[in-house]
Design goal:
Strand order of the largest sheet: 1-2-3-4-6-5
CATH class: Alpha Beta
Largest sheet: 6 strands, mixed
Number of helices: 8
Bound molecules: coenzyme A
CATH topology: Aminopeptidase
Distance between the termini: 22 Å
Oligomer: single chain
Radius of gyration: 18 Å
C-alpha cells in the first residue's frame, strides 16, 4: 500500500467495518491510522487493486512489538489528538473510549513520552539503525482484511492473505496469527483459507474473538 491509497483504504474500511471502534473514531483518524501503519517499522500494509483501483486492504505486522512501538512513537500523538477531537465532538464515543480503552491508551502514551525523554539521538556522529535479529520462531499477525463490497467473492481476500503469508515466510517467521469475530469464525471463512482455529479469547476492551493461526514456515 502506498500513502496515496490511504484515503481509499479508509473509505472501504468505513463501508465494510462501520461498527468497529476505530471506524467510529472518524474518517480522519482512519486515514491517519493507515498512513501510520504504512510507515511503521515491522508493519505490513497491503492493497489489492483491480484496474489500478484499490479494492481491498490488509493490515498486519511481521514484527508486532517493534511495529506497535514504532507506530506509537511516530504517530501516537497525532492519532491520540484525532481520537480526543472525535471524543469532544461525539461525547458518546468519548465515553466509550474512556471506559473501554482509557487506561490502556494512557499507559501507552505515558510509555511513549518516557521513551522520547530518555532516548535523544546522539548528535555529531552518524546514527546507525539497529539491525533486527532474525528470530525463526517469531510470530507475525494479521489484524485487518477487508474488501470493497462490490468486489467481494472474487478471491481478493484470498490473494491478500496469500501475499501476507508469503511476506511473513520470506521474513523468516514460522506463524501468522489473527483474531476474528465469533460470527466470521462460525462462517468457516478462515478454515477455507487454510487457517487453523486456536480457540476463543477476550480483547483488552472485553470483546470476544476467535484466534486463528497459519503456518508460513518454509516459504523463503
Ligand atoms: C470477509 C471478506 C474479507 C472476504 O473477502 P472476499 O474477497 O470476498 O473473500 P474471497 O473471495 O477471497 O473468498 C475466499 C474464500 O472464503 C469464502 N468466503 C468469503 N467470504 C465469506 C464469508 N463471509 N463467510 C464464509 N466464507 C466466506 C469464499 O467462499 C472463498 O472460499 P472458496 O475459495 O473455497 O470458495 C470480505 O467479505 C469483507 O471485507 N468483509 C467485511 C470485513 C470483514 O469482516 N473482514 C474480516 C475481519 S477483519
Amino acid at each position: 500500500m502506498l500513502p496515496p491509497d490511504a484515503t481509499r483504504a479508509a473509505a472501504i474500511h468505513h463501508d465494510v467495518l462501520g461498527a468497529e471502534f476505530i471506524t467510529r473514531a472518524g474518517p480522519r483518524f482512519l486515514r491517519r491510522y493507515y498512513l501510520a501503519w504504512m510507515r511503521s517499522d515491522g508493519g505490513m500494509a497491503l492493497a489489492a487493486r483491480v484496474d489500478g483501483q484499490v479494492v481491498g486492504a490488509l493490515l498486519g505486522s511481521i514484527r508486532p512489538a517493534q511495529h506497535y512501538r514504532s507506530m506509537l512513537r511516530r504517530d501516537g500523538w497525532r492519532l491520540g489528538a484525532l481520537m480526543l477531537g472525535r471524543s469532544l465532538a461525539h461525547p458518546g464515543f468519548g465515553a466509550e473510549l474512556f471506559l473501554t480503552r482509557g487506561m490502556r491508551y494512557s499507559r501507552a502514551l505515558l510509555r511513549m513520552a518516557r521513551t522520547r525523554l530518555s532516548t535523544h539521538p546522539p548528535t555529531g556522529g552518524p546514527v546507525v539503525p539497529p539491525v533486527p535479529a532474525l528470530n525463526r520462531s517469531a510470530i507475525g499477525e494479521v489484524t485487518h482484511v477487508l474488501v470493497d463490497a462490490a468486489y467481494q467473492g472474487r478471491g481478493v481476500a484470498r490473494a491478500l492473505l496469500a501475499e501476507a503469508e508469503e511476506q511473513a515466510g520470506r521474513a523468516g517467521l514460522h506463524r501468522l496469527v489473527l483474531v476474528t469475530t465469533p460470527e466470521l469464525a462460525r462462517s468457516g471463512l478462515y478454515e477455507r483459507l487454510g487457517w487453523t482455529p486456536q480457540g476463543q479469547l477476550a480483547s483488552g476492551s472485553g470483546e470476544e474473538f476467535w484466534r486463528y493461526e497459519r503456518d508460513v514456515s518454509g516459504r523463503t
